[in-house]
Amino acid sequence: MSVYSGPVFDMAANQFAVIADHLSIPLDERDRLLLPKRAITVSCPIHRDDGTIAVFEGYRVQHHLTLGPTKGGTRFAPSVDIGEVAALAIWMSWKCALAGLPYGGAKGGVRVDLSRLSRRELELLSRRYMQEMIPFVGPHTDVMAPDMGTNEQVMAWFMDTYSMYQGHTVTEIVTGKPVASGGTVGRLEATGRGVAYLARRVLNELSINLNGATAVIQGFGNVGSYAAFELHQYGLKVIAVADHTGALYDKSGLDIPALMHHASTHGSIAGFSNELAYDPDQILTLPCDVVVPAAMERVIDAHIAQNMKCRVLAEGANGPTTPEADLVLEKRQDEIFVIPDILCNSGGVVVSYFEWVQDLQQLFWEEEEVTRREYHILDRAFDQMVKRAKADKIPHRTAAMAIGVEKVRAAKTTRGLFP
Length: 419
Prior knowledge:
alpha/beta, Rossmann fold, seven-stranded mixed sheet, globular, nucleotide binding, NAD(P)-bd_dom_sf
């Protein structure tokens, strides 16, 4: 029996089993690599605006602390549960190891429908969640970051709450903060920017002309919107986007800067254009050069994978492709180049690492340096993944995860098992 359950955790466990078999990891070592070191569940009571008390359930999972503190986002969404959070923490471990960062993976979240919270209630919930986490987190234990449903402002509230309890400002407790509160330039754009950079690199290697190439973006939050903007800047036509409110399609290319302005003003793409409305269920199978799933987990199943008509699948979301879909994509690897999530969306944690380092040193970099360093790490990880995939004749996801798992396993082996 295990406290971890659900389709997302099962997916992470199944992926790990594939890697463990590929690496011939003995059965008695597998649970130590897979199961999280620590899982915390807390109750977060707040006073609602109407004077009533509401209690929200919060979670934090720290997968391993073998290489350094854990690192990971905090998600505010109705779907959050301990199994989902654990899976995301596990993926973050492999992601950090692949990128060469001195972190283990973590993830947190609160089960809440943000549409039913006022700004005041959101602040109270954010502060209460951090207050409950104070015994379990710290700049050298677990460093939080934003995720779905959280943003720079929430991170500022987290940092302020932790700092008030310490009696001095501790900017390095979270990343993804506003620049005015110790954040780094380039962090807001980092994940989407990295997705677009890697997609562009693959297009160049496939000899596909960027000018006139097309892209489809599923999810238009922070990751999807900045990926769309960067691809637009590279010369691609973003012909379709979707979010939780619907989808838009224009074969001549959408006005991405105008759409970003609309989404930031109104909170979604809804209302941007009635004429361009499109069926969101069809967006992932549109003919195009690049598809970027940048929303939720498990959106690409075997049926969708079989019907995709892109050349590059750039996974901006965590776990967007099911194991069944991976089997289909493995057969289509000559048609579709997969940039797996643990590489494709790792620009966010890479620049979060830069923010943590800058906060610890109190020495801040210019955005040009942040971006240059981000791209260097992404290029290095990409080269390692492709080299491993070719040498072992395995899919890119298997290669990327194998590199990450090997690094964590090697660290655990050399440190040994504490008596």
